[in-house]
Design a protein that fits this description.
Elements lengths: L13 H4 L2 H17 L5 H16 L3 H26 L6 E5 L2 E4 H27 L2 H10 L4 H30 L8 H6 L1 H25 L18 H24 L1
Antiparallel strand pairs: 1-2
Helix pairs in contact: 2-3, 2-5, 2-10, 3-5, 4-5, 6-7, 7-9
């Protein structure tokens, strides 16, 4: 599996050495408390105290903050603006213009939700930066998950980098044919048409090729399967997973208790 077909960054770090299932559990161990724990500052603390240090622990802080600037912050910012201006209710009016009203309550609600989204997307980003898809697939199949389901999970994780790689190839090919993709905004919009067509049809062809590859590798076979790559599951990983399960259960109970 080629590295460019995933977001994985090869580094030697404690986060990279964790079992893939442990890191998958860590995702939900961050997301569930961020959404379930009723205390207002929970997602903020998770982002600052847990997510940011994990990025440095995994030695992927540069790639993580670059992804945050390109993807996470724009999404969270858009959600923040929409909810701050259009959520009805609230008594303390901070600003009003035409039909738009900004209240203290809507601002706090929008900020909390934006932070929850940042925790959720950041968790998946760290997971993809520190976990190779083949390791996750090998670990899941070793634990008894049918190959078809493991393949669906891996294919989902690879959709964005594969589309990105294919789009870059198409753009380079169209530029070599004289297509203008770097001038005015209007010309770049017109250039999307010859780019989208090959991208969509190429993706459809790739789906068929993947289906053939699944059959060729015997995913539907009922015989026991072996792997060239054995994924280590250390006692530390098992202990972390139990701790994270306890955290998720505590988040659920806190939601029920304080609701």
């Amino acid at each position: 599996m080629h590295e460019r077909l995933s977001f994985y960054i090869k580094r030697d770090s404690p986060l990279h050495r964790l079992n893939p299932l442990t890191k998958l559990t860590l995702i939900f161990g961050l997301i569930l408390p961020a959404f379930l724990v009723p205390f207002y500052w929970t997602p903020h603390l998770l982002l600052i105290v847990v997510v940011f240090p994990l990025a440095f622990l995994g030695r992927v802080q540069r790639e993580y903050f670059a992804a945050s600037a390109r993807l996470i912050l724009p999404v969270a910012g858009f959600l923040f603006v929409m909810q701050a201006l259009f959520i009805p209710g609230g008594e303390t009016v901070l600003a009003k213009a035409w039909f738009l009203t900004l209240t203290k309550e809507s601002l706090m609600f929008a900020f909390a939700n934006a932070m929850r989204i940042m925790v959720m997307v950041s968790s998946f980003t760290l997971f993809m930066l520190t976990t190779h898809p083949s390791e996750l697939m090998s670990d899941l199949t070793q634990r008894g998950l049918p190959g078809q389901f493991a393949y669906v999970i891996i294919a989902t994780l690879q959709i964005i980098p594969q589309m990105q790689a294919k789009a870059n190839t198409i753009i380079a090919a169209q530029r070599s044919r004289g297509l203008d993709t770097e001038s005015s905004f209007a010309r770049r919009i017109r250039a999307l048409v010859p780019l989208v067509g090959p991208l969509v049809f190429g993706s459809l062809v790739e789906v068929e090729e993947r289906a053939i590859a699944i059959e060729a590798r015997g995913f539907t076979s009922s015989r026991p399967k072996t792997s060239l790559r054995e994924i280590v599951d250390r006692p530390l990983d098992k202990g972390l997973r139990w701790f994270l399960l306890f955290v998720m259960l505590a988040a659920l109970l806190s939601r029920i208790w304080f609701s």
